[in-house]
Amino acid sequence: MKCAVLFSGGKDSCYAAWLANQKGYELSCLISVFSENPESYMFHTPSISKVKKQSKVMNLPLMIQKTKGEKEEELKDLEVVIKKAKEKYKIEAVVTGAIQSNYQKSRIQKICDKLNLKCINPLWHKDEFEYLKNLIENNFNVVVTGVFAEGLDRSWLGRKIDTKFIEDIKRLHDKYKIHPAGEGGEFETFVLDCPLFEKPLEIIDKKISGERNSWRMEIEVE
User: Do 80 and 170 reside in the same domain of the chain?
Assistant: First the structure.
């Protein structure tokens, strides 16, 4: 079955794509939505343009759709690009990295139903700590590019998801109820390497901005 992957460049969409591929689905293209709104309800924003570099090392075509990022209205832009992917690549399904967000899952499902496409959610309701361990076990090199919650500060930017990360995020989960996988928007990530990449990417420059518990790291990769 030919699939398009809703792709942000973060751990969830990358891992979901890999799981779908492992299950025998054919990855036909990546779909990324570039939002002008950094507080988008639906779409990842830090370093989103670097998905272009990831698509090259994945050897997959990338379809980009721009949106102003207005709540609910941005879904119309998502529908437009999924429809284009169906016409161009003859996709039969859409892969998402949704874990617990009913807001995201239900809206993508509605678009897929309208376009007569299957919606595949490989990470849905997966145990968060087990998932983080799976990332490490399957050689996903993931770094934090944004933090947006109490307990998280600038020092978390650029951190790799490793055993120490899991230990630290568990303490914050116990204290502040932070979602361990950042599903509530507490933090965002970028994948530098995974089994779907032909070669790893490397951060060659970065620009940090923010204050208090809200920080972003825009990166350049090669």
Answer: no
